[in-house]
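Render Aminotransferase class III-fold pyridoxal phosphate-dependent enzyme in 3D.
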Amino acid sequence: MNSQINELDLLKTLDRDHVWHHLTPGAAARKGLPMFVRGEGLRLWDSEGREYLDASAGGVWVTNVGYGRTEIADAVREQLAQLNFFAGSMGNAPAAAFAEKLLDKMPGMSRVYYSNSGSEANEKAFKMVRQIAHKHHGGRKSKILYRERDYHGTTLAALSATGQAERRAQFGPFVPGFVEVPHCCEYRTQYPESNDYGIRAADAIEEVILREGPETVGAIILEPITAGGGIITPPEGYWPRVREICDRYDILLIMDEVVCGVGRTGKWFGYQHYPVQPDIVTMAKGLASGYAAISCTVTTERVFDLLQEEAGDTLGYFRDISTFGGCLAGPAAALANMKILEEEGLVENSQRMGEYLLAGLHALKEKHPVIGDVRGKGLFAGLELVQDRMTKTPVDESVAIAIAGACKQMGVLIGRTNRSFEGFNNILNFSPALTATAEQIDQILTTLDKAISQVCG
Ligand code: PMP
């Protein structure tokens, strides 16, 4: 026992002195951070022996099937023992088997391109668009539109396609050819007088296309439901109009399902809530629930065909590689992850428990005036906190920090938008693993209720 404690203390010291933690200010890191040591289902235990209920799916919407899934660990171990890696023009069993399973959930989609992270999946999509522009449009049609408040990743092109000023701050200059379109958050509508906001918000995209010149625009990337920018469910009528505009100007629609994909919103993919068909879909996080690093860029056969070689065009095919897109741990884990989702009916559970969660959050809104808006689909929900419901003035970031902190003190981990949108660090989010039970949702809601009372009176 003693030697175990000493080893843990040593590891904590090593962590404090050597690990550069994501999104953690140096002052906090230098004091030393507790470590998580074990997880099971929605539960996590830290090095101090404290137990938590994780309503954030690993902090960043990842652990869709929950912690401690030995069946995924076993599938990965078996695959790695048999064959761990080969990248390039040879096939392998888990990549083929998983592609078939995935495409079965995505009518109209046809090809799966493997890589390692959400950012990378989006970069692949951007490179496809750029190469299509060169092959078919003399280098024009290379601009990619992105939406205010959406996030698409940490690499420089993905960040250049991100509509969150605070995330971009201090990282310029950005990659050229990315152009912003207005957000579609009904609660913060730009057209308060209109009763067809969905159409107006989509038409705002067309205005940008016409301003830039349709012959210069190759694609638009959008989140089906904006995640880090504040759990923004798009307004009625938005998606069909977006598709119509894309078709009118021959613009590819890239759907970033990195967060929403693989059951999070109560359907296999977020876009499937709406009458819209994308050309390219990117996904990562819940794809293997954090048991391996894997992402996919999924395309229609048309996009695949646009990137194939023609006579005399030796640069014709998609000239891209991802070294660890060739690691077989990813598709092996994704295959086992999908088996669990199917066998345990977790996408349906996400839908059912999501409704229960949303109803609970709406009830809390009745009680706490600080809750200005409740949004979400499936086990993917958010609260927008305001000083005053009439003016909708956002609360100071410190209020959201204090509420999330109080929840943590009471053993529940919730998410918080972090510097997503200028002045709007006022959104709390809830995304437990898709195995969540009514009792666990109750624990999240009761804890949140107490935390809001503590912080806001
Ligand atoms: N797209 C969206 C919508 C995301 O939320 C994220 C990450 N939070 C990414 C892309 C980037 O994924 P990754 O961090 O795996 O590169």
